[in-house]
Amino acid sequence: MGKLGLLIVLAAAVGMAQKNEWANVKGLPIGGEIRVALQGGKSYRGQVQNVTDESLIIVAASSQETLARAQIKRVSTKGDSHRMRNTLIGLGAGAGTGLAIGAGTDASCGGHCWFGNNIGKEVLTPVGAIVGTLIGVAWPTGLWHDVYRSK
Description:
The chain is of the alpha+beta class. It folds into 2 domains: 76 residues, SH3 type barrels (Roll), CATH 2.30.30; 56 residues. The protein is 44% helix and 26% strand. It is built from 4 helices and 6 strands, in the order ααβββββααβ. The chain has a 6-stranded antiparallel beta sheet with strand order 4-3-2-1-5-6.
C-alpha cells in the first residue's frame, strides 16, 4: 500500500474513532433535534432533554424517553437548512449558463437573426435562471449526520 492509501485508511480510522465518542452526544445542545437508533432495531426521533455518562434522555412524540447508553447504536443530528443559499446559487448559475448559451446562439446567427441580434440572450438568460432556481430549491438540504456510533 502506498503513502496515499495509508493516509486514506488513517483518515477513515480517525473519523470513525471520533464518532465512537460519547462526548459528542454530551456536547449536543438541549432541545436539539436528534434521531437515535437502538441495538434491537427500534428508533426514536426527538429533542435532547439531558445526557449523562450512562444515558440519553429525549422528548419523543410528546413522551420522555430514557435510553441507556449500552443500548444506543447510533445518534444523528439534523444539519442546517441551506435552501435559500441553494436557491440563490441555482438562480445565478442558471442565469449565467443561459446567458452564455444565448450569447453563443446570437453569435452564430451573424447579425442576421430573424427576431433580432440579442434574442438568444434575452430569452435563454431568464429561462436558465428559472431552471437553475428550481434545481436550487429541489436540492437536498439539512441531511442527518451521525455524531455517535457504538463500537
